[in-house]
Amino acid sequence: MSYVHKSLIWMLSGWLIRSKSWLGQGLGRARTAKCTRGSGTLRKYLLSIRPRCLDFSEAVGFALDIARAMDCLHSHGIIHRDLKPENLILTADHKTVKLADFGLAREESVTEMMTAETGTYRWMAPELYSTVTLRNGEKKHYNHKVDVYSFGIVFWELIQNKLPFEGMSNLQAAYAAAFKNLRPSAENLPADLAPIVTSCWKEDPNDRPNFNQIIQMLLKCLSTIPQPEYVPPPTMHPPDNAVLPPESPGTSSLMATTRRGTGEVMNSELGEKPTGFFSCFAGNCY
């Protein structure tokens, strides 16, 4: 069994994936996802347009792509555990974001503990972090809501086009989020988007929405964006004193002989007889 979604990158069409085993076999161990057709990471694109921010609809559209990909993963019991702009690929036309790099992905376990401090500190959920030095591979209890927290941080970046926890190292950011309940500022977020972002990074994982709920909230936001009104092209009227170009030779005579305004000119009036194949249908052959 394989899991396919248009916003997930793990197919060979246009992408090279090196893996030891894959989700269809139970474990997400894709080591590298590399684009070969001119795309780049979301991080690279955001840096290239600074200080400009994405348009409202563009930011929500990208967030929707990510949420749908994550919803697909979670619906099959898979946690990504390293959601960040570096692991999101923007298509060459800059219209779609795809989820990549499943090197830390694994099946979610309800009964077993999973490896702690997995992912990248700046985007890591607070429940993954520990105040004490952990032995390599030490386990903790957590669930798929760690990806929802990371999504909240990524969504904030899409809106603000700034590095979250700016001025802090990755480790300082993780510590501040886990033990000081510090989050990036939500003051300048659009009123429609702020509740979505802040609900995703709540301290208690049970208070965070799932990705299906996030998708519905994002779709509702998109539906509120006013569509541009149709503006008809201006009608050009020549000024009263305009000098019009002379009519082409023959036009006046043809117009004068037109019958009943139909635009047809009778052959007899032109002094010509019909010739050729189509003259048969004018009654000349029968």
TrEMBL record:
Q: What is this protein called?
A: Serine/threonine-protein kinase HT1-like isoform X3
GO biological process annotation, one example: signal transduction
The entry lists its GO molecular-function terms as: ATP binding; protein kinase activity
* Entries under Pfam families matching the protein: PK_Tyr_Ser-Thr
- Organism classification: Eukaryota, Viridiplantae, Streptophyta, Embryophyta, Tracheophyta
User: Could you tell me which residue ranges the Protein kinase domain spans?
Assistant: 1-230
Top-level taxon in the UniProt lineage = Eukaryota
Question: Which InterPro entries did the record assign?
Answer: Kinase-like_dom_sf, Prot_kinase_dom, Ser-Thr/Tyr_kinase_cat_dom, Ser/Thr_kinase_AS, Ser_Thr_protein_kinase
Recorded hits in SMART domains, A to Z, give: S_TKc
Where does this protein have coiled-coil stretches? Answer: none
Organism, by scientific name, is Cucumis melo (Muskmelon)
User: What GO terms fall under cellular component here?
Assistant: cytoplasm
Identify the coding gene: LOC103498110
